Amino acid sequence: MPTEKHRILLVDDDINVLKALRRVLSLTPCMAGTKRFHLQVDAYDSPTAALAVAHERPYDLVLSDYRMPGMDGTEFLTAFRELQPHAARLILSGYADLNGLIRAINDVGIQRFIAKPWNDYELVNAVAHALALRDLTLENERLADQARLATGQMSPQEVEMKRLELEDPGITHVEWDSDGSVLLLNLPPDGKDLL
After folding, report:
1. Alpha carbon distance, N-terminus to C-terminus of the chain
2. Closest CA to 77 of 33, 112, 117
3. Percent of residues in the chain assigned helix, strand, coil, to nearest 5
4. Dihedral sign (CA 53, 102, 85, 111)
5. Which domains does the chain have, with CATH numbers?
6. Is the whole model's pTM more than 0.90, yes or no?
7. Beta bridge partners of 91
């Protein structure tokens, strides 16, 4: 059974929820079928801080609380999707907000809505299946890109840029100043990683 390492981002304004989620994801085997996932978990109590880190670090999956001060989960996941469109997105909430759920599904493309309090097994199972689906989708895209390369629909440079973008989101995007210089964006997080 091969073990794969996947980076997970947790975002919730309640530090105790973050600690509980981290504990569950650290102690419970995360498996989908025969595929086992080794999880590396980053946890932030601020959506703004999590977005700043997402500029620097690629994630395979993000699990966000729905109700947070300053930015709700749907707003956060929309901004996160702009940075890392291939990451699986899950939302967690203790509130039965049907309109919010519909918006999260339609606008953000979340894969799963998990209710608080969660069942540990169901939570880990949802994470494992979201990661398995993401991996399968990326492998299908890679094979399709190889076919496009073989038929001349994509250049080797385009294939390589796509691969680099998956490994390090934003690496192929350059911000230019009006004088032609390259702008380096270094956004300091205003929340804390609970690692």
Report:
1. 28
2. 112
3. 45, 20, 35
4. positive
5. 1-195 (3.40.50.2300)
6. no
7. 64, 113
